[in-house]
């Protein structure tokens, strides 16, 4: 089977999606990328913040990152040994895993991962 018509059709769909997305105000649109081997890869958007202290807004690295199929949106939280929140960070992470209370010096670190929808790490 000749894959050129299929590739042309996928490119046309992507172009139409880009044009329709530029005039639309719909939040949480999925994005699709076609790889060199013609496989389709879905990406999602994740909230990004490198440093956020309790009770404050993001102080460093605020933005949005794109998580590809081998990545996930993540939220990392650091707590003092007594359970007091100390620092939160968010972003895209490759090979992400949910973990609870990893000991790191005088802190406990927890990670939460998600891929269910755009900006899913805002409410983890």
Automatic annotation (TrEMBL):
Signal peptide: 1-21
The UniProt record lists the keyword Aminoacyl-tRNA synthetase: no
One Gene Ontology term of the molecular function aspect: acetylcholine receptor regulator activity
Location of the UPAR/Ly6 domain: 44-122
Residue ranges that the Swiss-Prot or TrEMBL entry lists as coiled coil: none
Record keywords: Signal
InterPro entries: LY6_UPA_recep-like
Superkingdom of the organism of origin: Eukaryota
Pfam family, one: UPAR_LY6
Name of the featured protein: Prostate and testis expressed 1
């Amino acid at each position: 089977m000749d894959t050129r018509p299929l590739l042309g059709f996928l490119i046309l769909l992507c172009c139409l999606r880009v044009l329709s997305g530029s005039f639309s105000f719909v939040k949480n649109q999925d994005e699709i990328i076609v790889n060199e081997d013609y496989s389709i890869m879905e990406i999602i958007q994740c909230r990004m913040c490198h440093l956020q202290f309790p009770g404050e807004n993001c102080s460093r690295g605020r933005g949005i990152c794109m998580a590809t199929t081998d990545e996930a949106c993540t939220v990392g939280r650091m707590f003092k040994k007594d359970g007091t929140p100390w620092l939160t960070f968010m972003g895209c992470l490759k090979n992400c895993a949910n973990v609870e209370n990893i000991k790191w010096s005088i802190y406990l670190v927890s990670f939460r991962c998600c891929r269910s929808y755009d900006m899913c790490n805002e409410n983890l």
